[in-house]
Write a structure and sequence with these properties.
By secondary structure, the protein is mostly helical. 59% of the residues lie in helices and 2% in strands. The protein folds into 2 domains: 2-134, no CATH class; 138-234, no CATH class. Strand 1 and strand 2 form a beta hairpin.
Length: 251
């Protein structure tokens, strides 16, 4: 994404917008949180990364360096996008009208007409880079089976769904969820709400706002903080080698 922004900067120049209007920017904080934290699947990969690391003492520097490098790239990416695309708000022009100019600047077929709601789409016309950048959504698609299995197992453990079916004497064959076929049926049932949403609602960015901005805040921050807080109140052992060094309530 950084390379794509630099490509357009060198090809078509900067399109920096006027000074930032914070009244317009503040409502988009949820989008920022969703796109940079939740949508990058940070929480899906942390446990899988940490567990196999040997020696475990290398985990702290690994997370320190990776977070520093990742933060730098995210900041650079945001600034490059702001400089390259920030002032592009005019609509796309049809091929028959390519001779039209906007403020003396000719419309260019390959140049994004505005910052796309999904940032990846700004680089569709760059050879090779577009395939690399736009492969990222494919990784989300590839993760769907894992997420579906996790969702199914968690819901069946947390909610008394099977007890309700047994009490109502309804669809008792679903209780044998150790069988592969029944597991598949449960997965299909839990997928129906998702399929319904994407069938009737097409604004992906709004969905990212709510799933990433609000749900992400609870999943990544509020719920873990609550669990840690109560766990520390219950843990009265004098020596705990797993105790966090960040014990102060400010953390």
């Amino acid at each position: 994404m950084c390379i794509g922004s630099i490509y357009y900067l060198s090809k078509d120049g900067a399109h920096t917008p006027p000074l930032i209007d914070w009244k317009k920017q503040l409502p988009n904080i949820a989008d920022v949180f969703g796109n940079t934290t939740f949508a990058f699947i940070y929480h899906h990969s942390v446990s899988g990364i940490v567990y196999p690391v040997r020696p475990q003492s290398s985990i702290k520097p690994m997370f320190l360096y990776s977070n520093i490098i990742g933060s730098i790239f995210l900041c650079v990416e945001a600034m490059l996008a702001w400089v390259a695309f920030g002032a592009l708000i005019h609509p796309c022009v049809e091929p028959d009208d390519w001779n039209v100019t906007h403020k003396g600047i000719p419309f260019v077929e390959e140049f994004p007409c505005a910052v796309s709601a999904l940032y990846n789409e700004n680089f569709l016309d760059i050879p090779f880079i577009s395939q690399v950048v736009n492969f990222y959504p494919m990784l989300n698609i590839a993760a769907v089976p894992i997420l579906n299995i996790t969702l199914r197992n968690n819901l069946l453990d947390v909610l008394p769904i099977k007890a309700f079916l047994k009490k109502q004497n309804f669809c008792l064959f679903l209780l044998d969820d150790h069988k592969p076929m029944i597991k598949g049926i449960w997965s299909i049932i839990l997928t129906i709400p998702v399929i319904s949403i994407v069938t009737w609602y097409r604004d992906v960015q709004t969905l990212v706002t709510y799933t990433g901005g609000f749900c992400g805040a609870f999943i990544l921050l509020i719920i873990p903080v609550t669990m840690v807080s109560y766990a520390r109140q219950l843990d009265k052992s004098p020596a705990n080698f797993n105790a966090s060094p960040f014990q102060h309530v400010g953390w």
